[in-house]
Specification:
By secondary structure, the chain is an alpha+beta fold. It has one domain. 18% of the residues lie in helices and 27% in strands. It is built from one helix and five strands, in the order βββββα. The chain is elongated. The structure holds zinc ion (ZN). Zinc ion binds next to loops.
């Protein structure tokens, strides 16, 4: 798969921890959400993408709908 930003094939996978905060004032009362995705990083332009884990995605969906 080539980079979606610059079409480079020069990419690598890296492990990561991402601490997600919910926006706005109501987000101050919610615990942050930790996810541990594999990042696909373009070594030419820095564009990075990762799959959002399904269970955590559903949690964000519920939060947005509330
Ligand atoms: Zn790129």
């Amino acid at each position: 798969m080539s980079c979606k930003s610059c079409a480079s094939e020069n990419q690598t996978e890296l492990g990561a921890e991402i601490n997600i905060h919910f926006p706005g004032r109501k987000g101050l009362d919610k615990p942050a959400l930790m996810i541990f995705p594999k990042l696909l990083v373009c070594l030419d332009c820095g564009f990075t993408q990762f799959p959002f884990p399904e269970a955590e995605l559903r949690a964000v969906e519920r939060d947005v709908a509330a």
